[in-house]
Specification:
By secondary structure, the protein is α+β, with helices and mostly antiparallel strands. It contains 19 helices and 20 strands. A nine-stranded mixed sheet has the order 2-1-3-4-13-12-11-8-9. The chain has a three-stranded antiparallel sheet with strand order 15-14-20. Strand 5 and strand 6 form a beta hairpin.
C-alpha cells in the first residue's frame, strides 16, 4: 500500500474523506460512475464511501466489474453503505433511530460490549453474509447506557451487522459513517477509534497523530466554576446565549405574536441535519415569556418586555376557551392537541403571567389565569389531585361532576406539581381561598404517600419537580410541617448529586412509569449510578425552584444549591457554529464524559431534543432569578 495511492470512490465531500486526506496525501478520488481500469490500477487500496450520498451506492454494471476485479486481485476495499458489493447485497435503507451499535471485538480504544450511537442514521441491512468472522460492530436494541455483555446471541443475526470483514480484504459497513462528525456520532472518542481502525486497516500501517486535524467538533461544552470570581460574568454570557437561541434557531414566531415552536427534535440524520419540532404549544409559549420578562428586568430592554407580553397575549387569546359553559377557561395543549388539557402544562403557561402580576403589581390577564384555574379546579378530585389530562370529547356535565366529587387518587408531581404551585401563587394574588384549599389538599395527599408517589420518568424527576410547589406551600401557609417537607425533599435529592453539580437519574426499585419503555415516552435511566442527567424532565426545574425556595425561606442552604446547579447549567450549555443548537441545552448529558449521549428509546424526545419551554426557557429563567435576587427577593415575604 505504501507504494501506491489510496483510491476513494465517492459522490461528494464528507468527513471521512477529509480524514483520509490527512492519512494519505497521495490519494485519488473517483466518481462512482467514472471508474477506469487504468485509474484503479494506480491504487493499492480503496475506500468506497457510498454514505456520502443520500441513497445506497450501486455501481453501474461496467463500473462494478472494474471494482470487483480489484477485490479479486487481493486489494483491500472498505465499502460503506453500498447496495451490493462482492457477494453481499442489501435490503432497502432503514433508519437507525433507536438502534445502537455494540463493539463485539477488541479494537484499539474499544472493548467488547462498548456501545456507540450513530444518531438517526441510515443503514442497509445485508440479506446474508458468507463470512464466519465475528462482526466488529453489531446493531442492538438494549436498555443500557454505555456497555453491555456480548455473547454469541448478540451477533448471530446477520441482518444486524454494522461493520465486518466479509473477506480478508473486504471490510463492509452497512451504515452511513461518512459524516460521523457533523452527524454528532457519540461517544466521540469511540467513533474516532472506529474511524482510525478503518483507516489503518486500509493503509496497513499506523495513521499518525494528525489524522483528525482540521475536523472541528460540531459542538463544545465549556466548564464553569460557581466559586470563581469570574462566574457571574460567565452566567451573564450564558443567559445572553440562551435568550438569543430563541431567535437564532428560528424558534420565536413573529416576536412572540404567534407563540414559539416547540424546539429541536432528537433526530440528527446522516448528513448532520437536525429535525425541528414545528408545532406550537401553549406551555412552551407561556414558559418562554418568563425569561424575556426577566431579561427586561435584568437588562432594561423594552423589546424583551414586548416579546413577553406578545407570548402571553397569544396564549390567552388563541389557546383559551372564553365562552361561557362547560369548557370555559379550558386551555388547549397544542395547535394539534386542540381539545386536550394537561393541567401541569397549563400551569406552566400561566405561571409567568402570575409572576409578572406579582412583580409589576398589576392584574394583566389575571382574570384569564383565574378562568384557567377555575376550569382545572372543577375537574379536580376531592383529594386535590387531577388525573393526567382531560379531553373535551370525553367531558360531559356528568363526567365533570364525577371528577369533582371523587378522589383523583393520582399522586404524581409530574402531572400536578406545577398546577398546585400556580394555585398557590394565584391565591397570593387574588385571595381566592379555594385555590389554596385545593393545593393544600393535593400536596398533603401527595406527602401522605411520599416517597412512594407515582413517578413518571424517575425518582430524580419527581424530587426535582416537588421543590417549587413545596416552597410555595410554605410561602402561603407558613406552617412548619410544610417547611419540613420542603427540606426533606431537598435533602432526599442530594444523594443523587454528581460532582459536576448535576443530579443523575435514579429510581429506587425502578418503579417509574416510563422506565424501560419501548415504543413510547421513555426514561433515560437504564441503571442507577449511570452518569446520565435529564434536562427535560428533571434538572431543568431546579434553578428556578432552588432560588425561589431561597427567597421564601431566606436560608442560604437553598442559595448554595442554586449556585451548584447554576454552575452545572453554564457548563452544560451547547456552544456551536450551528445556530439551531448554539446556546441551548439538550435533554440528556453524560456528565462523566460531558457529552450528549444517553439511551435514545424515547419516541419523541431523545438525548438531542431541545425543548423551547420546558428546557431552555425554564433554565434561563432560573439563572436570571439568581442574578435578580436584590429585585425579586422582597416579593416573596410570607
Amino acid at each position: 500500500m505504501t507504494e501506491k495511492k489510496l483510491g476513494v470512490i465517492c459522490a461528494k465531500d464528507n468527513d471521512l474523506l477529509e480524514v483520509l486526506k490527512n492519512a494519505c496525501p497521495a490519494l485519488e478520488i473517483f466518481k462512482p460512475d467514472e471508474l477506469t481500469e487504468e485509474g484503479l490500477d494506480r491504487c493499492g487500496a480503496f475506500a468506497v464511501l457510498g454514505g456520502a450520498a443520500g441513497t445506497p451506492l450501486v455501481f453501474p454494471a461496467r463500473m462494478r466489474l472494474l471494482i470487483e476485479k480489484q477485490i479479486a486481485a487481493g486489494k483491500k476495499v472498505f465499502s460503506e453503505f453500498c447496495g451490493s458489493i462482492g457477494d453481499v447485497y442489501c435490503q432497502e435503507p432503514s433508519l437507525t433511530r433507536v438502534d445502537r451499535l455494540v463493539c463485539t471485538e477488541s479494537l484499539p480504544g474499544l472493548t467488547p460490549g462498548d456501545i456507540l450511537d450513530d444518531q438517526c442514521g441510515t443503514r442497509v441491512k445485508p440479506w446474508f453474509s458468507r463470512s464466519n468472522i465475528k462482526p466488529l460492530l453489531q446493531y442492538v436494541r438494549e436498555n443500557t447506557h454505555e456497555h453491555m455483555t456480548v455473547t454469541e446471541e448478540t451477533y448471530k443475526n446477520v441482518y444486524e451487522r454494522g461493520l465486518w470483514l466479509e473477506k480478508d480484504n473486504l471490510l463492509l459497513c452497512s451504515f452511513r459513517i461518512s459524516n460521523f462528525n457533523r452527524s454528532r456520532f457519540s461517544p466521540r472518542d469511540r467513533w474516532l477509534s472506529v474511524v482510525r481502525y478503518i483507516v489503518e486497516w486500509l493503509l496497513g500501517q499506523p495513521a499518525g497523530e494528525t489524522l483528525f486535524d482540521g475536523l472541528e467538533k460540531p459542538y463544545e461544552l465549556l466548564t464553569a466554576d460557581p466559586k470563581s470570581i469570574e462566574f457571574e460574568k460567565r452566567l451573564y454570557t450564558c443567559i445572553d446565549k440562551g435568550i438569543n437561541w430563541f431567535k437564532n434557531a428560528g424558534i420565536l414566531i413573529q416576536d412572540g405574536k404567534e407563540g414559539v415552536k416547540e424546539g429541536m427534535a432528537t433526530e440528527i440524520d446522516a448528513d448532520g441535519n437536525q429535525r425541528m419540532l414545528t408545532g406550537v404549544r401553549d406551555d412552551c409559549s407561556g414558559e418562554t415569556a418568563l425569561p424575556y420578562f426577566l431579561n427586561y428586568l435584568l437588562r432594561n430592554r423594552a423589546e424583551d418586555l414586548a416579546v413577553s407580553d406578545n407570548l402571553l397575549d397569544f396564549c390567552f387569546d388563541c389557546f383559551q376557551i372564553k365562552d361561557k359553559g362547560l369548557f370555559e377557561g379550558m386551555t388547549r395543549w397544542t395547535d394539534t392537541g386542540w381539545g386536550v388539557c394537561y393541567q401541569d402544562d397549563v400551569a406552566r403557561a400561566i405561571l409567568p403571567q402570575l409572576f409578572k402580576c406579582l412583580i409589576l403589581k398589576n392584574d394583566t390577564h389575571l382574570p384569564d389565569c383565574a378562568r384557567a384555574l377555575n376550569f382545572l379546579v372543577r375537574t379536580t378530585g376531592t383529594d386535590g389531585m387531577r388525573k393526567s389530562r382531560t379531553d373535551n370529547v370525553d367531558l360531559t356535565p356528568q363526567e365533570v361532576e364525577r371528577l369533582h366529587s371523587t378522589p383523583g387518587n393520582f399522586p404524581s408531581t409530574h402531572y400536578n406539581g406545577y398546577y398546585w404551585a400556580a394555585l398557590l401563587l394565584a391565591n397570593k394574588l387574588t385571595g381566592i381561598a379555594e385555590y389554596k384549599n385545593v393545593a393544600v389538599r393535593g400536596l398533603e395527599a401527595l406527602m401522605a404517600v411520599y416517597p412512594n408517589t407515582r413517578r413518571e420518568h424517575s425518582q430524580t424527576q419527581e424530587l426535582c419537580r416537588m421543590i417549587l410547589p413545596l416552597a410555595y406551600l410554605y410561602w402561603v401557609t407558613g406552617e412548619e410541617k410544610h417547611k419540613a417537607w420542603l427540606y426533606q425533599v431537598a435533602s432526599d435529592l442530594q444523594p443523587m448529586r454528581h460532582r459536576s453539580g448535576a443530579y443523575i437519574e435514579w429510581d429506587e426499585g425502578y418503579k417509574a412509569h416510563r422506565y424501560s419503555v419501548n415504543g413510547g415516552e421513555c426514561s433515560l435511566l437504564t441503571k442507577n449510578g449511570d452518569p446520565v442527567v435529564d434536562m427535560l424532565y428533571s434538572l431543568n426545574w431546579l434553578p428556578s425552584a432552588f432560588i425561589q425556595a431561597y427567597f421564601i425561606t431566606g436560608d442560604s442552604y437553598f442559595k448554595d444549591l442554586w449556585k451548584g446547579i447554576a454552575g452545572f447549567m453554564v457548563s452544560a450549555q451547547i456552544h456551536s457554529a450551528n445556530k439551531q443548537i448554539d446556546g441551548g441545552w439538550t435533554r440528556a448529558l453524560d456528565v462523566k464524559r460531558m457529552e450528549v449521549f444517553a439511551l435514545p428509546n424515547d419516541i419523541g424526545w431523545g438525548p438531542w431534543a431541545m425543548e423551547s419551554g420546558w428546557t431552555v426557557a425554564e433554565i434561563c429563567s432560573g439563572l436570571m432569578m439568581g442574578l435578580l435576587e436584590d429585585k425579586l427577593k422582597g416579593y416573596f415575604k410570607k
